[in-house]
Amino acid sequence: MNPMRMLRPGGLISDPLEPYASVRRVRPDGGAWVMAHMVGGLDGSAAIGGRVGDLSTTPDTELFTLMRALADVALVGAETVRRERYGPVRLPAGRVAARCAAGRPGTPPLAVVSRSLNLDWSARAFAAAAPGSRTLVITCAAADPARLAQARTVADVVLAGRDRVDPDLAVARLAERGYRVVLCEGGPTWLGELVSAGRLDELCLTIAPLMGGDPLPVSVTPPGAPLRHFALRHVLQAGDTLFLRYERGRDG
């Protein structure tokens, strides 16, 4: 059998984002790098009572906010936007200042994936977005024309596919807009689509010390999708919460 090692506590990390910020996120093919930040319980559940927020521990909530500072755009599925009552991306003042000093926008825009466009256009995700960081809506050509017209009044619409949102094309469209690091925040169905298409480069997975949540996994893989392999890059601990970071490995 392969050798095993016991992981022992190391030094304390004052900035929880530092181990993630030091990663070089560049794809060999020049496309956008897609990272996902997800949380799951010990039994693999990705929600409690239909909401991910109720599963997250205090250290995970803090890291969730900070992780957005690394992204050029935050990508999320429509169902997650509805259930989690999403608003536009907000960052601590110090992180905003650091991004601006580096010549980047103060906050990354939100990008919502929806085939049906069954969204509340008066919700904070759209109505509260800063003028220079308008929310994007990624949909397909077959979307309802009336809803498409509505979406264009409050968001920047991106078409990525004919009858469905194609994950590979969606990421390509974001790259064309200059978004080189894409942070996927769920949900499980959209994450599964990205994995199936071979578009997930990095998974930051928080293991919350809880069991008994909803029978909903972190990722829902489409039928017939190939297996994707990932390599463990680091493990962090805060109390009883574990933070695992994986990068895409070699697929057979």
Could you describe the 3D structure shown?
The structure is a single chain. The protein is an alpha/beta fold and 252 residues long. The protein has one domain (27-248): Dihydrofolate Reductase, subunit A (3-Layer(aba) Sandwich). Helix content is 25%, strand content 21%. The protein is built from eight helices and nine strands.
Number of strands: 9
Beta content comes to 15-25%
Count of helical segments?
8
Largest sheet, in brief, is: 9 strands, mixed
Unreliable stretches: none
In percent, how helical is the residue content?
A: 25-40%
CATH domain fold name: Dihydrofolate Reductase, subunit A
CATH superfamily: Dihydrofolate Reductase, subunit A
Radius of gyration: 18 Å
* Average pLDDT metric: 94
Net shape: globular
Attribute tags:
alpha/beta, single chain, 25% helix, 9-stranded mixed sheet, Dihydrofolate Reductase, subunit A, 252 residues, 9 strands, 8 helices
In short:
With 252 residues, this protein is α/β, with parallel strands linked by helices. The chain has helices spanning 18-21, 58-67, 78-84, 93-101, 124-127, 145-154, 167-176, 188-196, and strands at 33-40, 73-77, 110-113, 136-139, 156-159, 181-184, 202-207, 230-238, 241-248. It has 8 helices and 9 strands.
